[in-house]
Write the structure tokens for this entry.
Amino acid sequence: MAENNRAVLKLKEKFSASIIDVVEFRGEVTVTVAKESIIEILSFLKQSLQYNLLTDLTAVDYLGKKEERFMMVYLLYSIPNKDRLRIKTPVTEADCRIPTATQVWKTANWLEREVYDLFGITFDGHPDLRRILMADDWVGHPLRKDYPLQGPDREPYKGRLS
Amino acid sequence: MATTETMTLNMGPQHPSTHGVLRLVLELDGEVIVKVTPHIGFLHRGVEKLSEHRTYHQILPLTDRLDYLAPMSNNLGYILAVEKLMAVDVPERAETIRVIMNELTRLESHLVWLACHALDIGAMTVFIYAFRERETVMEIYELISGARMTSNYFRVGGLSQDVPDEFVKKVSDFIDSMPGYLDQYEGLLTTNPIWLKRTVGNGVISAEDAIEIGLTGPALRGSGVDWDLRRDNPYSGYDKYQFKVPTGENCDTFDRYKVRLIEMREACKIVRQGLDKLKPGPVLADFPQVCYPPKESVYNSIEGLIHHFKIASEGFAAPVGEVYQGVEAPKGELGYYIVSDGGNKPERLRIRPPSFVNLQAIEQMSVGSMIADLVAVIGTLDIVLGEIDR
């Protein structure tokens, strides 16, 4: 159960005020925390609980489905203990920024650039925040839900004509 | 008084040794690299965006176009993530064939890596030899799926079809001859003084740095970290196979070369164990809400046809939730993270590409060395741009 997860126990003990939600689904534990303490929590998980590998860092756009539009997702892995943990934190559209995790893991550098490029979330303190997949002069953030699939200024696809 | 200044040199995106459309902007002091700035995205096709507009079955053909040198590993990662989301159990025969194909894919991907890596450094014969063996794997691909590269062979719940009768003999002959071929490559390279001069001490990255920058797969094991998802977080029944996980000691290009060659020998052993395990049985789970019906029933009964039509056009609704599945692809940890909002399309599909994260280490591994050594570093990282740019 999620309550007995080693990380969840420690997090509840140390950061009980910041934890918004703990969910277990298909054996995977997800902890949602407040944005203000995200870096503190990630550093704690890395230093004290041996989650030494940042597997992935990404975002999800919940346009029109949740009050806070974006959800940042950190997928952590512990090579010594061979277990995974998912940390999430909500980011609002009005305040579309979050502190960078690059000082915790160097891996975060490119992954955060990708989130910045495709979702338009700004990472405060990032050493090199440029677009990475799209061209430097691109306008818009393609993975946002309100960005059209066909790209800007193009007729939406209406199916085959024949 | 003499002054020195650095020179900026553009390398790529059209450059044979960048393995695709990778552009590097180099800052050079003479021939020594001071700074490397990779520019990627030339092959960006928006696979993650496209996936949000397709049903779960329709996403599958997009995945084998990511790492097109190891299509089946990409298929497997995605399929396992969907199966985890839907809680589908896969029949044993299908699982065994998946493992066999996955290991053949590892052989194929490593053969291309070896061929190109050696060619970059100047050993052309290995290129010709390795592509000869790769052709056999391509033929096996064609035999079972009809396509040489974009296989699209796995299905949620099993396989698209059972393997033909000649499959076992063809695979068996191939893995019997493979160790001999590997000896041949090693005879050309492992003790070759030019190869040693170019690879020993090149692209050194310590185990701590490698974990910090997020390296996975053979690149991480070359730095001495004993970690392999197939053994440590087994999937597809990998816990029932015996295999060794090789690690390096000197964290350099030569050790990563040795790790990959041992991995190829181990892959042959896993395929052999898989062939021994192969028993007749169904290859698709009996889970009509999610899986396609068997082809015979589609062609011969109206119920089967309706079932097929419903699954193909409308797909299936997934429960609300999110799953992540990582697999040990030839290039490192390949992960699929699916967020479902209860519909028949994912709310978000995130692909964790091993090459993208591994490429980040290029600067750390090449600053201070010569331009020619950078070419060896690109080769040893074993990147494929289809996966980096998605």
About this structure: The longest strand of chain A covers residues 53-61. Chain A has a mean pLDDT of 86.
